[in-house]
Specification:
Elements: E1 5-8, H1 12-19, H2 25-34, E2 37-43, E3 49-52, E4 57-60, H3 73-86, H4 91-105, H5 118-126
Helix pairs in contact: 1-2, 3-4, 4-5
Length: 127
């Protein structure tokens, strides 16, 4: 049982395990809030992300790219999200930055080789 989690970032399969297979995004995140998760960030792959906090919800759509290998996309997303929060970007910009990083990562093969540089992410955000 979760006692307190500041932010949890499951993908759709992990969310199904945590909250139930037949729940929609809002019902599933509400269940995790009741379990003690302050903020829930549902990673939905090529559909983007759904964020639910105690005071607001937010959807950020994924960038459309040609997918080659999704091996490290979740890790790249999480790292980019943490990095952008550390850089004091607001929530929406942090989510967009993380989505852009993950989008770039799936256009390349492998794990470490797929991690984009900041300049590449900023370029995609500027398009």
């Amino acid at each position: 049982m979760l006692r307190y989690v500041s932010i949890i970032t499951p993908n759709e399969m992990e969310m199904a395990e945590l909250a139930g297979y037949n729940l929609g995004n809002e019902d599933a995140t509400a269940k995790l809030h009741k379990m003690g998760c302050e903020d829930v960030l549902l990673r939905r792959g090529n559909k983007g992300v759904f964020f639910s906090g105690r005071s607001k919800s937010l959807v950020v759509l994924a960038f459309k790219v040609r997918v080659i290998d999704s091996t490290a996309a979740g890790d790249v997303f999480s790292g980019a999200f943490a990095c952008s929060l550390d850089r004091k970007l607001d929530l929406h910009d942090s989510l967009r930055y993380a989505c852009a990083a993950a989008a770039l990562s799936v256009t390349r093969r492998g794990a470490q080789k797929s991690v984009p540089r900041n300049e590449e992410i900023e370029s995609l955000l500027g398009e």
